[in-house]
Amino acid sequence: MATPRTKNPVPSWIENPYPRLEHSFVEFPAKHILLVTINRPEFMNCLPVEATIELGALWKWYDAEPELRCAVFTGAGKKAFCAGMDLKQRLDIINTNDIAFEYPQGGFGGMTNRTGKKPIIIACNGHAHGGGFEIVLNADVIFASPNATFCLPEVLRGVSALAGALPRAMLLFGNHRTMDLILTGRRMPVKEALDWGLVKEIVPQEKLLQRAIDYAQEIADKSPDSVIITRLGAREVWETGVSRATMRGQELYAEAMLRSKNAAEGLAAYREKRDPKWLPSYL
């Protein structure tokens, strides 16, 4: 196993080395707390497939590491938590007809369809768009900076948010609010996200990360077994309702969508910084 990349030494209470990371880094800001930071600020912290595979392995390691009790997940910089998948990479895969690596069981970022055992707190330090919003929707508690926005822009790109966001948003927000978000691709400002109950608190950027870490410490101070069991008991609706809905969406629509001419057109327009020219649908 490669030497772990971290901003500070791995503490002695960590029993097993964590998986190798190229696109994120980890820290241990307090006993029992894992801090994970997506480290692609120059790309708005969007995730190529390789980064998602790394994170999928990392969250499994986190669940298995005995002394870790709560995790905080954030992005580098002050503009974006995660702007979703690397759309330029996705377009290249479509154009070359290459075989894409499959996402881990937990989905995009290892999180969008993750059940897991232990809680993950989001410190949303900016935009959470596309897959980034899908990660947020399946996290446990969300703190956000004043500049945070939330968006599912897939209809603007000729694709669809099939990693779990659509059924999760429906359960969280209800039919009409969800349809407003997903059919327009509009950006939800952080105040609206607070009003809708998605965000717990809006925290100034310079205090955001510490607030999330302090909150994670509150959870870590509780019984680890009780936290795990209580969390899973409350999430049962996700696992019996949302997961099946996500699978059905992928079974019925995902391949046809990605093979459509409109998917290639939407992604090409994004790369070329122009408005897309949509074609009639044959789905």
Automatic annotation (TrEMBL):
Keyword Membrane annotated = no
Listed GO CC annotations: mitochondrion
**Which InterPro entries does the entry mention?**
ClpP/crotonase-like_dom_sf, Enoyl-CoA_hydra/iso
According to UniProt, this protein's pathway is: Mycotoxin biosynthesis
Keywords, A to Z? Answer: Virulence
GO BP terms in the entry: fatty acid beta-oxidation
PANTHER family attached here? CARNITINYL-COA DEHYDRATASE, ENOYL-COA HYDRATASE-RELATED
Q: What is this protein called?
A: Enoyl-CoA hydratase
Q: Which organism is it from?
A: Neocucurbitaria cava
